[in-house]
Amino acid sequence: MRIAQIAPLHEAVPPKLYGGTERVVAFLTDELVRMGHDVTLFASGDSVTAATLEAVWPRALRLDPAIRDPIAPHMLLMERVARLADQFDILHFHMDYWPFTYFSRQPTPFVTTMHGRLDLMELQPVFDAFPQVPIVSISDNQRRPLPQANYAGTVLHGLPEDLLTPQRGPRDYLAFLGRICPEKGVDKAIRIARAVGMPLKIAAKVDKVDVEYFERDIVPMLGNGVELIGEIGDAQKSTFLSGARALLMPIDWPEPFGLVMIEAMACGTPVIAFRHGSVPEVMEDGVTGAIVTSEQEAIAAYPAVAALDTGNIRREFEKRFTARRMAEDYVGIYQRLIDHSAG
């Protein structure tokens, strides 16, 4: 199968540090190549891939201080894909609604994975205008605000089996991994860690839009067992997550998937997560962690979570969240769309 994977240009594929969408695109692309497919990745020039790289911009936009208009490089990306579309059996976009207009009017089958939240008011008329465009959700919960969309399937994310693995050593702190912003609940994580008497290590980035929240609400809480270590990449995650007794995920938003949950599972680390969005689809309460609804419940759940079998958590990851399973799910969707287009 000749497959085009089209990634946003904000981050490299895979990202050097933080980045969920581009990380998933990297895992999917390389796994499709391992399965024998002919794959071309449209991405920034600093991407690293087993596929053929079609570099549309020299480097990731987030790391290029000269970029003032990020839309312009993405316009070039859409045009490059359009000119080469007839060379592929399927086009797989990871760019939200960007491809809907033009690619609905050309013959090559395409599909778009929606990686973000779908509960935004302004999305409703967009999806009303494109009722036939096939999209993929990354959890069933993600679909709820847009029931009218044309879902080709739900594909839960996956990781390469050997990317993150349990490391030997003590598990003597709690962990927070991701992004510091109000909806991710870093302040709640700090209060939970202090209540259960455990140190907390925060491996996270701060976007410009969240600097005020960080400086006002989080900086005063640092110290006294709470350590901010900044962004980390995949090379550091096995050690970071394997050293944690549990990962805290006290979110306050409709999480579309939550890659950090399966990253923790890959390291045998249980997760204490608030019941929002995809959490009940990804986690199994009492097996891979605890699903709670408040800080008080998280504190109460901690002793049982700390006693969970780390080997069993890793086995659950291997059963449900590998990159091979993810790629096989997508290939099934590709084939159905290709067959439908030919018919």
TrEMBL record:
Pfam families: Glyco_transf_4, Glycos_transf_1. Signal peptide: none annotated. Residues 171-302 form the Glycosyl transferase family domain. SUPFAM superfamilies: UDP-Glycosyltransferase/glycogen phosphorylase (SSF53756). Transmembrane segments: none annotated. Residues 18-119 form the Glycosyltransferase subfamily 4-like N-terminal domain. InterPro entries: Glyco_trans_1, Glyco_trans_4-like_N. PANTHER family: BLL5217 PROTEIN, GLYCOSYLTRANSFERASE. This is Glycosyltransferase. It comes from Acetobacter conturbans. The lineage of its organism: Bacteria, Pseudomonadati, Pseudomonadota, Alphaproteobacteria, Acetobacterales.
